[in-house]
Amino acid sequence: MSAPSLRASLFAALLSLACATSASAQTPTRPPVGGVNSSPDAMIFYAAHGAEGACGPDCSDWIAAEGAVQWDTYKRLINILDRQQGRKLPVVIHAYGESNLNVAVGLGRILHDRGIDTSEGATEVAACAGKSAEECFALKRRGGPLEATLTTKNAYCDIACVFIFAGGVHRTLHAGTRVILAGGTIKNRLAPNVSDEHRESLTTIFGEQFRVYLGEMGVEPELLDMVDRNTAQQKATEVPASDWARLHLVTSAPQ
């Protein structure tokens, strides 16, 4: 992980711009990833294997990323990438819950630096059939590889998903995916009270950092303009598939 990315992740451990996914897009709560300080639904990563073409043309293996982006998520991403012995498996994102946007940007930078492709979708593990959420989670937590399929039914990519997704060298979305951009709010992981003045200042600082990041990934700044407006108006905006290519959110036509 590069020094700038590491510094950003460490800073985000305390103060961050967070987003919350709408309830309709969330997945039921599962056991925490870590110990007592682990947030519910924190993002996990595991290798998955499916039929030929399961994750795109000539693609049968991928890394599933599912859950909410938290202050230490970048550690788990680096770990799973390091375990692939040089293979650059695409990362398929299924983000939900309240996520740390600073760290989401850090994840995108890691993927970009490693030359990884990205997509969005929910990974359905075959061995989880008939098992409880706890048992299924225990299987995934080992890191795989696990036999699985990808589903894009009700596919949903929020702003945290977009930030991770933007780091992909090649970025693809299925035509039915809903890209929903909501606003964010400043939060301190260790102290919940942040003054209005400090919150406004940090929102501006983080916004500029996000704008630089998206520019470096080749994504049009108009995307962040939408997020800024949504933050001010406390609303969400859907980006239609017809705008994805124009905004350079994807690098190829929707599948």
3D architecture notes:
There is one protein chain. This protein has helices at 3-12, 73-82, 101-114, 133-141, 159-165, 196-216, 222-233, 241-244; strands at 15-19, 44-49, 61-67, 91-95, 99-100, 118-120, 122-125, 146-151, 156-157, 178-182, 185-188, 236-239. Helix 5 (159-165) links the parallel strand 9 and strand 10. The model is unreliable at 1-16 and 22-26 (pLDDT under 50). The strands form three sheets. It has a six-stranded mixed beta sheet with strand order 6-4-3-2-8-7. The protein has a three-stranded antiparallel beta sheet with strand order 5-1-11. Strands 9-10-12 form a three-stranded mixed beta sheet. By secondary structure, it is α/β, with parallel strands linked by helices.
